[in-house]
Each structure stands twice: as C-alpha cells, then as structure tokens.
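Checked the freezer inventory, then went back to the computational side. Two predictions to log before the end of the day. The first one is the construct we discussed on Monday; recording sequence and tokens without edits.
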Amino acid sequence: MTPHFSPDPAKGAAVKAADRAHVFHSWSAQGLIDPLAVAGAEGSYFWDYEGNRYLDFTSGLVFTNIGYQHPQVVRAIQEQAATMTTFAPAFAVEARSEAARLIASRTPGDLDKIFFTNGGAEAIENAVRMARLHTGRPKVLAAYRSYHGATNTAINLTGDPRRWASDNGSSGTVHFWAPFLYRSAFYASTEEEECARALQHLKDTIAFEGPTSVAAIVLETVPGTAGIMTPPPGYLQGVREICDRHGIVFVLDEVMAGFGRTGKWFAAEHYDVVPDLMTFAKGVNSGYVPLGGVAISAEIAETFDKRAFPGGLTYSGHPLACAAAVATLTVMEEEKVVENAAHIGATVIEPGLRNLAERHPSIGDVRGTGMFWALELVKNRETREPLVPYNATGAAAAPMAAFGAACKKNGLWPFINMNRTHVVPPCNVTEAEAKEGLAALDEALTVADEHTA
C-alpha cells in the first residue's frame, strides 16, 4: 500500500502550526508534545506529509478494528448523511434500531436492550447509574490496573495514575486487586492459586465494605491499557457467583476488548460468563463516528419499565454513528474479521512474540489473545524489575522512549504504556502485515535490550 498523494511538507507544517496554536491535547503537558501531522490512512497504515508510512500497531486507540477507511463503511456514512444526517434520540430511527438489533444479536445472554452513548466513558457512567438505581446501593468496586474513562465516575473507577488528579475521595468507589500472576499481589505461583486468592481477596473486601452497600463490581473483561492481563480460568465465573450471592450488579467493560479484539465477538465468550450490564464503544463501528453504549439485561431493563431512567444524551444513537455501526458489523460478518483476529493471533502474533521473547532479554512476559497482546519489558528477567519505573516520566522513561523511536524509524507505530508495548493491530490485519510488524519490533527491541542487566 502506498500513500495516495505526493508529499507536501509545507502543508504538513501548516497543519502542525495550527494544531500547536489552537488544539489542546488530552493527557498531555501541552508545551512538551510534538504531534505528528497525519496526511492520510487506509487499512492498517497511515502516513505523514513527508511521505513516511507507518504500520499502525495501535489501531488508533485500539478502535480501528476493521482498519482505516473501509469503503463499505465510508459509503454507509455517506448514504446516511444524504438520507438523515441527525435526529433526536426520542424517536425510532432505522439506523438506530438496526444497530441496536445487530449489537443485541451478538451480546451474551439476555443483554438485549441497548442504551447508546457517545463513547466508553459515558457508557460506564450510565451503567453505574443503572446499577445504583437498580439496587438502591451507593458503592462500586473496581480493580487497580484498570482504565474506564475520563468522566467523573469513570475516572474514579479507573485504577491507574490518571485517576489521581481527579480522585475526590468521595465517589463511592472502592478498589481491589484483580488477578495478575506475573506481578501477583497474592504471592501465588500458579494460575489456580492466583484465581483462588484473588477471589478470596474480593470476598474479604466486600465483607468489610458491607455487602448490602455494594451496587456493582466493574471489571474490564480483559484489561486493556493497564496491560492486557487475561484473567485465569474460573475468575470471572467466581465474580459472577459472588455478585449473585449478594445481589450485586456485575458490569463488564468491553469498550476495548469487544467486537473481535480478542478473537471473539466479546471477550466474555472466552470465559463463559454473562454480566448484568456490558459497556461497549470503539470497535462497534471501528471508531469512524463516536459511538458507545450499555447492553442491559432483562432484569435491569425491567427496573425502568415504569420508572424513568434519569439519564440521556443529545446525540444518543446518532444516525451517522449507528449507520457506521451497522456497516461495520456487516463487514465483520461478511469478511470474517473475528475469525481472522483469532487465526492471525494464534498462528502469527503469538508464536512470533514468543520467538522474540526467546531472543530478547528485555521481554519479561508475553500475554494476550486474538489481536490483543502485550510485551512486558524488564531490566532483569529474574527480578522482573520493569524497564522503566511505574508511571515514569522524563529521563526516567528514556528507555521506553528510545524503543518507541526505534519502532517509528522502522515504519511501525507502537502502543506504549509505562514499561509495556501492546500489539493491537486492526482485527483484519493480514499475515504479511503482522509479520512486517513483528520484524520491526524485533529490530526495535535491540534498543530495549541495551537497558537490561
């Protein structure tokens, strides 16, 4: 694939100048960033105004599950815009109804009612509101090593350092340790021990917080930005049993893990578990137009049959976003995108990453499934000391910055968080593209190896 334009550095400079003059970027110290001016994108690639092309191993922010500019989805957006660009959410609109039907046809169990939002954080906000109203209880439990969004409730649920500046200490959120054997909080040596001890820790937390005060437990089915830690067998089923015992609403956050990312339509399918509420966004329409939502069980939906749900959004179920979702879900079915994610993940990505781990001392752990993988980079495999400290910035983060620069020099755009690089290309990535990315990683990891002991 080649860029469909001639390089235009002058235009790139103008785009960059306007950005620096007027755009306020998220999660950034504005004077310390240098955003790349992007000229175009297609499939698994994007390119800049200098003509440099990058294989995108980030899928944007893990949302372009069918890659950039899929013609069938672009056409659906254009056709919807020509028919009905927008309409208020209180009406029945074909694109909205069909998107809800298609999503409900894929969600597990009886999660058949869909409340649309503009993104994942709003989905979490409304799921927690539903759980609190359904139970009449105030508290919500969430895991450390998690990310649920940047709005008020969602950021307080989040377990990574992005929460700290906004944590008001009175949100009704209680954090606990979820299982993660590589850095076990429970001194476990096997997945079975980690699962049993993590479940006991959760039971103890609930017992001391008061079971009748807990409205919901919110978990990412497979935590994403926090490190792609696949839960051990039996853990999510154990959480389901705990929730059932105490009348707690079980909320699974599938904003990042859903719609093919793990090689299943939803990650919950890997673990044979059905939550009471499931949040989604990102891959539902490959991020082409902002869309998220909550899939709601019959029991919780019934709570609001005769009682108004006190929540809504002006753009809930926006026709353009829903038309993009309908087209995306159709493409995923017709082109077997979910099957491709599972196949390429199992036959190319996983063996390729494990091969890299055999040759690069900086790789401490390889974990994931489908198109959802993480490499944990360490200074020392024996001690498991991270390549950079937790939440490192500036000079302390230099080894990861050098690794990232080496990736980009080799035409690969990496997803880097703390001491990890995540391998999350589009779910329809080809075998050749996956191997191209692994080769670029192989070369860049020699830079990370220089910082090992």
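The second is the one RB wanted added to the comparison set:
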Amino acid sequence: MHQSREGAAAAESARDPAIDLARLFCLVLVVVGHTMMVSPVLHPDGTVTSENTLGNQRWFEPVVWVLQVMPLFFVAGGVTGLHSWRRLRSRGGSALEFAQGRLLRLVRPSAVLLAVMFTGLWAARLSGVDPQVVQLLASGAGMPLWFLAAYLAAQLNLPWLAALHDRAPWLTLAGLVCLVVAVDCLRGALPALAYANMVFLWCAVQQLGFLLADGESMVRGPAGLLAVVAAGNLVLGAVVVLRLYSGNMLVNLNPPNLTLFLLAVSQAAALQLARPLLVRVAALGPVRRMLFFAGRRSMTVYLWHLPLLAAMSGLWLLTDLPQPAGGTAAWWWGRPLVLLGVLVLLAPVLALFGRLEERPTVSGTPRPRPAAAVVTAAVVVFLPVGDAALNGLTPGLLGGGAACFALAVLLLGRVPARDAGRGGAAGSGSPLPHPPIRANLEP
C-alpha cells in the first residue's frame, strides 16, 4: 500500500499542471457545448428529427472559433504522447507496446459503452419505442466515435512521427500540412478523399504538440505569441472571406480541413501564453484535487456524456412535458437543467465504469503480445469506428462494434509494467530531456 501511494505521488508530480488544466477546460467546454446543440424535435406528423440548434444560428459561427477546442485536445495529446513514448523507449519499450497501451486505454471503456448502448436501445425497441427514436438516439450518441478514430490514428502513428520530428521537426510539420492542403484541393473531384485528413490533419496538429513539448518556437516572449495568435486568426479569416472554406467550424470538423490547423496554431500559441497563469491556478488545492480526479476519468466523461444526453432527450420526447422549439427563450432557460441532468447521470457511470481507464498494465515481464495480435486488434477496432464516422451509427453497428472491441481487448491482453528505476540503466534510447513542458503520465 505504501509503495502504491509513493507511485501515485511520483506520477502526479511528473504531470504538467498547465496541460492538465487545459484538457479539463476543453472537456468542460465540449460537455457544455453539446447540451446546447442536441435538440430532438417531434413533428406534428409523428416523425422525429434532430437539430443542431447552435450550429444553425449564424451568430454562432464567430463564437465557435473560440469554443472549437478539439484542436487543443490534439495539441495537448501531442505533448503528453511524445513524452510518454520517450519514457517507454528509455525503459526498453517498443512502438508495439506503445500502440498496445494506447489501444487498451481507449478500447476498454468504449467496449462497455457500446455494449450498454446496444442492450439499452434494443430493449427500447422491443418494448415498443418508435424505430425513429431508437435510430435518433443511436446516431446522436455515436458522435464521439469520430474523435476516437482520429485520436487513435494520431496516437498509433506517434512513434514514427516522433522519429521524424527528432530529425527534422519543422520539415515534418510542413510535409503534413502540405498533405492536408493537397487533400483539400482534390476533395471537390474526389469527395471520399477528404476523409484522409482525419489522419493528416490531426497528425499535423499533434505535431504542434511535439514542438511545445521540446520548447521549439518561432517566436519568443508574450508579444511574439500574441502575434502568432493574431496571425493564425487573420489567415483563418482570410480563407473564409475568400470562400475557400466555410466559416462554421462545426462544418469544418468532419471531414476536417486546413482551417482546424490554423485554429490549432492560434490555440497552441495561446496555451504557451497562458501557461504561467494556468500553472498558478492549477496549484490551488481544490483545483489540484479536481485535476487529479478528472485526469483519471476524462475518457469516461467524454464517451458517456453524449449518449446520456441523447437518452435523456429521447425519454423527454416520450412524455407529455413541454418541449420548446430549439433556440426559443424557453429552450435556452432549460439548458442549465439539461446540463445538471447529464452531470447527475454521469455520477453513477463514473462510479461503475471509471476504473476501466486505469493503466492497463500487469506487474512482471510476461511475454510481449505478438505483432499480429496488436495489428489485428487495431484493424478490428477501426472497422466499426470508421464505418460509424463515415456513415453514422446504427443499433446493428453498435452490436458489431461492441463485439469487435471485446475481441480487441482479448487480443491485446495486458501491457507489461516496466520498472522506472531499472529502466534508466537497462533501457534503450536516450534519457528524457528537460523541456519547459514536462511529461504527463498518460495511462
């Protein structure tokens, strides 16, 4: 027990509080934003549709430039992922172990979510709930899966992208951005090609995190960082004014395009600029405790909040309670209650399933998993996730996805835990540098 406390304390001390606070800020904005977007509508003829209330309002387009924090998620993921990979490599770990750990951390909680959703929606269907409502709940609840596909793709490519970064950081970033632009130029003639930027774009944004992790910067001082923030937004505004891209960052999100990289440049510079303030805020006792808990349960919150919101909205449609139209004053006044309802429902979910995010390791040095097992697990995960991201989620795909994810967990097994004390002497690779941003220990 004493040793486990020491290990937890060591892990916490190695975390970067600024990155933790930034990620918590992003997660809160995503949860709050989704409560203001999901708006199921029951029409007089009995049909049910879903409206994105905020996305349909013109005044929201410039606001979403500030609230679209998904690029910042990937910047932070680049910072933490690069350091996690270097730590593993310095202890003798391989790219295969890195991929195994990343897959397990995301797939284990997702498998349970898909299984619960499949069971719940088919129970609702068998109990007589209209198929339209069931499909609406499935498609709405499946929205977070695109993030799972994009984040996994970026993280699984991290070891070799890190190797390129170590040799030529700016050239690697420029190459990825050129690929993003090339896909954007060809997407008119080949619409399906646009989804290649699910990999190229988010890997480019992740590469910005690599630069932050190593202290790389084209500018120095607050004035220079402010100039980068302004320049990123000015270029973004220019491509929108020239009608090269939509000004709606929700439209630009799936499939992603260059506008999100420009937004990421501004957000990465803003993160550096705000870092001293973030560190001071994160040092406050209540905030530090909240960050410690949120960091261990963030994926559970992200995966479950939208299914819970969709379920709550679907149940609301089945009642005789007032159902104000989206965007009306009554609808806006009801948003705080909707957010409170989601938070209340999240509490038992975190208690039941939160531990699935714990580090998926086992003590000792068991035989590493065969490369074929890890590759097969990645393939069976991406099949349903890619289908859902491209074509939407259906109740049938939920069952298939749950089975694929369960198979992936069996194939991946557990990652061998490596002793940090022995790794420094026996591990391969160079020791960790000491950049301005220290490594967050991700599960």
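For RB: The radius of gyration is 22 Å. The first strand starts at residue 38 and ends at 42. Let me know if you want it refolded.
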